[in-house]
Design a protein that fits this description.
CATH class of chain B: Mainly Alpha
Number of helices of chain C: 12
Number of domains of chain B: 1
CATH topology of chain B: ABC transporter involved in vitamin B12 uptake, BtuC
Radius of gyration of chain C: 20 Å
Largest sheet of chain B: 2 strands, antiparallel
CATH architecture of chain C: Orthogonal Bundle
Chains: A alpha/beta, B mainly alpha, C mainly alpha
Number of helices of chain B: 14
Oligomer: heterotrimer
Order of helices and strands of chain C: HHHHHHHHHHHEEH
CATH class of chain C: Mainly Alpha
Largest sheet of chain C: 2 strands, antiparallel
Strand content of chain B: under 5%
CATH architecture of chain B: Orthogonal Bundle
Strand order of the largest sheet of chain C: 1-2
Radius of gyration of chain B: 21 Å
Shape of chain B: globular
Number of domains of chain C: 1
Structural class of chain B: mainly alpha
Distance between the termini of chain B: 16 Å
């Protein structure tokens, strides 16, 4: 057994609504890849943020190399040899790679000698096999290269303990392979590695030891070679995962959403959506599969009228809404469940009732037709709100209570309630179950299938292959802004999907 | 530099606590305000007492409190509506003058119109002036600080413009004072309480705040949209609200109320357009910011807080005369009141916890 | 009258005056630029300036020492800065409105203390003997450039040197890099081990000291008294100047000098007794008030123009919290 580098004992962290870490014990050893496995919200990132000094534990003790330490800031963590590669890269996009790398290091003298720094960066990247051009501006780089810079940052500061927080979330399968190579090399050089993830396959592939967290507690620890996906899944979730049954899809009906030849640029003026064509029909779920960051966000924004399409068309219910206002798009009966649910969907400081009527506040049901003033019919609003709360089984909620008192799952329901109560004919759902527990996820899946059966066309954008396989009639795969392949549900095997997501186009896949 | 404190998200405050924001801020202001008073060698309790007596001592003084409160509640209302939509209108001062200018143009002409036509006409012109002056603030759509800087600059521009007008084009031919010709009798706000300056504009201001302002925010779809866009612009957009159109409407409404304040000062008190309608250095436009925030952006509380500051501002003269405390205490109070209001709003959201 | 306006002498005088009169704006703009690059918008500039003006004046009046006046101003700016940096850094929300609160409070405080010290002696304006411009021998003898650049106040020389220093700091030193990253992505800075709060405290406090100095220039150099309207909106203009200068030191300096030019022009017209003049060859009469209003009008115009290419610190106005 190799030596213990880090011991976390009895770590507890409480937030106002939840206990994120509940007396957690964790050991990290030299040369070992230890995975922290759990669903979203299980407490994995919180625990590591405590180790890195970003959070302050309410209880517990941390020992590094046998000595009890207090880590009250990242600076302290870095001094102890702890480094963290964050899920959302902590980089200043306007600066160069080299400038980002020397920030906060001892090597940086007061007056910057960029030549020296450049040389050091090149040296380092060669040493660890992480090629990076020191003078490149970060915003122009791919996610994989940005991650390399993040890793180099930790190594430059002499990190012996490396924490990777959901590192594969934004990588293609090919980039993931490279990352795993790097991790194994680092482990063999004696670094202690923590790999945070909720991906069973990856965790089994890369780790030596797996610690499973659920609801803030450690529920079990296994050696990777002594366990299986099924056992881990059970530990993560606590009960049998239900298979969502899917009925056979309907026949060709009329299209409700047609996207043809759509092109758009992202915020850095680079091409993000390239000649995308896609059709969603009535009573059908079309999934757009792909790792986040391949243009899905920009595509969503173009459909919603929040980003300019440089060419191509968006047609909803036969009406051309390309580059029209969001209002025009909504008027064509398109509803949207955004990836950033709270940020795009909820008014956190306002009461539940106000959140539920957003979008319907000018309808004749809820307001008078008087010009200019449109008085709100407050009684009807109260009634309507109560009805919705009941229909969607949102318990313990009063119409006039502030919405931010509700739990995450209930917040999701409020958004669903609101979007669906407007009876859309097309639903755009982007990562609808991200961050939800198993129960809430099942609920959403059932709901989406119900909507499909009622004749609503659904465009589902998701990273979760299992979800996509369970729900879709048609699967399109997006990679680097292009649709690289469209498969019917029956012919979509994991292998085919994986290849497409890595950018291997359909024709080439056939050859393989 | 390490502080032994951590900030934590606190549970949301009860309705009561939120509603009492003006009271809490007021108490804190009076407590903190005791320090400058004592530095001037006076007794705080005595100073506050003379302030109150000065402002409320007799019928005429009380009427003056109402007179001062009218423009205050209008600018406070204007700003509270704007702030609800996150339209940072710091330019109520300029809008006030713009309203005064256009209102005066109507008021010094058309003597043949009966008052019940002339006055509404003048009011409409004033509100138009204020609205136009507020519109450039929609630059915020393109630039982060577009609304703040634009409306701010217009404060200075409008004062200079007014000064120019009353010395040139709109000069009163009969005196040497820099003022416009007098407004006609038919455009003058009638005095409602004899032997005082209590004029119609005060009733109009109360109506604007308590009925129009409150009604708009709480009971109309437009008011709802203002709140929605201020709370979460993206969510509002996704619900079919056009944030740009909403910002424009907000600017118009906000500017109109400020313009109305300008009309009130001309038609109710000065009867001429002058370049000093609003106090210096802190005019009704900036005091309006204090009033708006301290009221929690609620039109009802705006009225109450406007009266409060009217008492403070009016009473400061007497206080200064009787106790030797400089009259500028009222400005210090305004700054403190705004600061404490913001502080308490913040503390309602975050708790400070000691760390071992 | 119009012929007089065209000679080389006039141009030199105007150029020199532009730089001289821009001095107050220079300090304010530099201070706000540093503050904003760390991600914080400080709208209280006007208030700090008036406090600086009052402090410098009263200290000089009481001690008969201009240097002590400057020292007192620096201390006042320091005190202001500490309070402001705590509010903006730790509280951080509603920066716009806090700026207004600081402005109002500072105005009240400045006038209050002034009145307390001098009593209500209306009509009698207290004055001091202000700084005089310092002529740098040899350099001032260079034709044309000499009188423009080398017959300025010590304040002005210091200001320009400060701009050069900070241009260097931001381009070539680690401190400049740290401030920049804190303003663009504070989370990135935090995880790299940088103390985000401390960086912002320093930036805001330094900014406040410069702003106070900008105000003090008005009362103990450019003028010789503390007039109530002495700052005249310069603090607000500085905010726009930072945007116009695209948050880069030398461009901000140029922007300040440009506005100094407008101010100088307006003062010159006033001194010549011109209340309006006719554009040569046309029938358009321009009232002198237009020049009074010109800085504010131009601010809006420039803001409109620069909105397209604004290169603002990405995290400007967003308070940083570790989401504890």
């Amino acid at each position: 057994m190799s030596e213990k580098v880090v011991e976390m004992k009895g770590i507890t962290k409480r937030f106002p609504n939840v206990v994120a870490n509940d007396h957690i014990d964790l050991e990290l050893r030299r040369g070992e890849v230890c995975a922290l496995l759990g669903e979203n919200g299980a407490g994995k990132t919180t625990l590591m943020k405590i180790l890195y000094g970003l959070y302050h534990a309410d209880d517990g003790q941390i020992l590094v190399r046998g000595l009890a330490v207090t880590i009250d800031s990242p600076k302290a963590a870095i001094a102890l040899g702890i480094g963290m590669v964050h899920q959302h890269f902590a980089l200043d996009e306007k600066l160069t790679a080299a400038e980002n790398l020397i920030l906060g290091t001892k090597q940086a003298k007061t007056v910057l000698n960029m030549k020296e720094i450049r040389e050091e960066v090149v040296d380092l990247s060669r040493k660890f096999g992480l090629e990076v051009d020191p003078d490149s501006k970060v915003y122009q780089l791919s996610e994989g290269v940005k991650q390399r810079i993040e890793i180099l940052k930790t190594l430059l500061r002499g990190a012996q303990i490396l924490v990777f927080d959901e590192p594969t979330a934004v990588l293609t399968p090919l980039e993931t392979k490279d990352l795993f190579k790097t991790i194994r090399a680092l482990a063999s050089q004696g670094h202690a590695i923590v790999f945070i993830s909720h991906h069973l396959e990856e965790v089994l592939s890369i780790s030596d030891r797996i610690v499973v967290l659920r609801n803030g507690k450690v529920v079990g620890e296994r050696l990777a070679r002594e366990t299986s996906q099924a056992e881990l899944a059970q530990m993560m979730v606590g009960r049998e995962i239900e298979q969502v049954s899917r009925l056979k899809g309907g026949e060709t009906a009329r299209p409700v959403l047609e996207i043809s030849g759509l092109c758009a640029l992202n915020d850095k003026k680079l091409e993000a959506v390239r000649n995308v064509s896609l059709t969603v029909r009535k009573g059908e779920i079309v999934s757009l599969a792909g790792v986040s960051g391949n243009g899905q966000k920009e595509l969503t924004e173009v459909i919603l009228g929040m980003r300019k399409a440089t060419s191509g068309k968006v047609i909803i219910n036969g009406k051309d809404v390309t580059n029209k206002s969001t209002k025009a798009v909504i008027q064509q009966r398109l509803g949207c469940i955004a990836e950033d649910r709270v940020g795009w969907g909820l008014m956190m400081d306002r009461p539940i009732a106000e959140n539920l009527i957003l979008g319907l506040h000018r309808s004749s049901k809820l307001s008078t037709k008087t010009p200019v003033t449109n008085f709100l019919k407050n009684q009807e609003i109260q009634q309507y709100t109560k009805q919705l709360l009941e229909r969607f089984d949102i318990r313990g909620a009063e119409p006039n209570a502030p919405v931010r008192l509700l739990s995450g799952g209930n917040l999701q329901k409020i958004i669903l309630a609101r979007v669906l109560s407007q009876e859309p004919e097309v639903l755009l759902a982007s990562q609808p179950t991200r961050g939800l527990d198993v129960g809430a996820t099942e609920y959403v899946h059932k709901l989406l299938l119900e909507l499909r059966d009622k004749g609503i066309g659904v465009l589902l954008i998701s990273e979760d292959l299992e979800e996509i396989r369970a729900l879709s009639d048609v699967i399109a795969v997006m990679f680097r802004g292009e649709i690289v392949g469209t498969l019917s549900a029956e012919s979509a095997t994991s292998e085919k999907l994986g290849l497409l997501m890595a950018g291997v186009k359909e024709t080439e896949a056939v050859k393989q | 530099m390490k502080f032994p404190f951590r900030l934590e998200k606190a549970p949301p405050p009860s309705m009561l606590r939120r509603a009492l924001l003006p009271v809490r801020a007021l108490v804190a202001t009076f407590l903190a305000g005791a320090i400058p008073v004592m530095a001037a060698g006076a007794n705080p309790l005595q100073a506050y007492y003379t302030m109150g007596v000065g402002a409320l001592g007799d019928m005429i003084a009380i009427a003056e409190v109402f007179v001062r409160a009218a423009p205050l509640m209008l600018t406070g209302l204007a700003i509270s509506i704007a702030f609800r939509a996150k339209f940072w209108n710091i330019g109520a001062e300029g809008q006030l003058y713009a309203g005064a200018i256009l209102g005066t143009l109507i008021a010094i002409n058309f003597p043949e119109l009966p008052p019940w036509i002339h006055i509404p006409f003048m009011i409409a012109a004033g509100m138009l002036g204020g609205a136009l002056c507020a519109l450039p603030g929609i630059l915020k759509i393109k630039l982060k600080i577009g609304d703040v800087v634009t409306t701010l600059m217009l404060n200075f521009i409008m004062v200079i413009f007014t000064s120019y007008l009353v010395q040139n084009v709109l000069k009163d031919p009969f005196t040497r004072w820099p003022q416009s010709p007098p407004i006609t009798d038919t455009a003058t706000y009638p005095i409602l309480i004899p032997f005082t300056r209590f004029h119609l504009g005060i009733v109009i201001a109360l109506f604007a705040a308590l009925v129009v302002g409150y009604g708009l925010i709480e009971y109309t779809a437009l008011g709802y949209e203002i709140k929605a866009v201020g709370s979460n612009e993206v969510a509002a957009r996704l619900a079919g609200i056009n944030p740009t159109a909403l910002t424009i409407k907000t600017a118009i409404i906000s500017g109109s109320f400020a313009g109305l304040a300008g009309v009130g000062e001309v038609a109710g008190i000065r009867h001429h357009l002058i370049a000093t309608l609003s106090p210096v250095p802190i005019g009704y436009g900036l005091t309006g910011v204090v009033i708006a925030v301290m009221s929690g952006l609620s039109p009802l509380w705006v009225v109450v807080v406007a009266f409060l500051f009217s008492i403070i501002i009016n009473g400061s003269q007497t206080m200064s005369r009787l106790t030797g405390v400089p009259i500028f205490l009222s400005e210090i109070f305004q700054g403190l009141a705004l600061g404490f209001s913001l502080l308490f709003l913040f503390l309602d959201m975050y708790r400070i916890r000691r760390v071992r | 009258m119009q012929a007089e306006l065209l000679g080389l002498g006039f141009v030199i005088a105007m150029a020199a005056a532009s730089i001289r009169i821009a001095t107050s704006l220079m300090y304010a703009t530099l201070g706000e630029m540093i503050t904003e690059r760390s991600g914080i918008l400080n709208l209280g500039i006007e208030g700090v300036m008036i406090l600086g003006a009052m402090t410098a004046f009263i200290t000089t009046y009481a001690t008969h020492s201009l240097e002590l006046g400057v020292l007192a101003t620096i201390l006042a700016g320091l005190a202001e800065g500490v309070v402001m940096s705590f509010v903006y850094g730790r509280i951080g929300s509603n920066q716009h409105v806090w700026g207004v609160a600081f402005t109002i409070a500072n105005f009240g405080l400045a006038y209050y203390i002034y009145r307390l010290y001098f009593g209500g002696t209306a009509g009698i304006m207290s004055t001091i003997i202000p700084y005089s411009p310092v002529r740098i021998p040899l350099l001032a003898d260079i034709p044309v450039l000499g009188p423009i650049l080398f017959e300025q106040y010590a304040y002005t020389y210091v200001a320009i040197i400060l701009f050069v220093i900070f241009a260097f700091v931001f381009k070539y030193t680690i401190w400049g890099l740290i401030i920049t990253v804190v303003g663009d992505n504070p989370m990135a800075a935090d995880t790299a081990g940088i103390n985000v709060y401390r960086t912002r405290y320093i930036a805001v406090t330094l900014g406040a000291i410069f702003m106070a100095l900008g105000g003090s220039f008005l009362s103990i150099a450019q003028f010789n008294a503390f007039l109530f309207e002495i700052v005249a909106g310069r603090g607000w203009i500085a905010i726009a100047l930072v945007t116009i200068g695209n948050w880069k030191p030398m461009r901000c300096l140029l922007a300040a000098i440009l506005f100094g030019f407008i101010d100088a022009l307006q003062l010159r017209l006033q001194a010549l007794g011109i209340s309006q003049f006719t554009l040569a060859g046309t029938a358009i009469t321009i009232p002198f008030q237009l020049f009074l209003a010109l800085p504010y009008i131009l601010t809006i115009v420039f803001l409109l123009m620069s909105s397209r290419t604004a290169d603002y610190p990405t995290a400007l106005l967003t308070p940083y919290r570790r989401e504890e």
